[in-house]
Amino acid sequence: MYRLSCIHCGAEYAPGEIIYTCPKCGHLLTVDHDLDAISVTREDWNRRPISVWRYRELLPVTIPPVTLQEGGTPLYHLERIGRELGLPHLYAKHEGMNPTGSFKDRGMTVGVSMAIQLGMKSVACASTGNTSASLAAYAAKAGIPAIVLLPAGKVALGKVAQALMHGARVIAIRDNFDVALAMVRNLCIEQGIYLLNSVNPYRLEGQKTIGFEAIDQLGEVPDRMVLPVGNAGNISAVYKGLRELEHLGFIDRLPMMTGIQAAGSQPVVEAISGGLPEVRPEMHPETVATAIRIGAPVNGEKALIAIRETGGTAGSVTDEEILSMQRELAQKEGIGVEPASAASVAGIKKLIEEGAIDRDERIVCVVTGHLLKDPETVIKQCPSPVEIDATEQALLSVVRSSF
Ligand SMILES: Cc1ncc(COP(=O)(O)O)c(C=O)c1O
Ligand SMILES: N[C@@H](CCOP(=O)(O)O)C(=O)O
Question: Which atom of ligand 2 has the smallest separation from the CA of 127?
Answer without folding.
Answer: 12
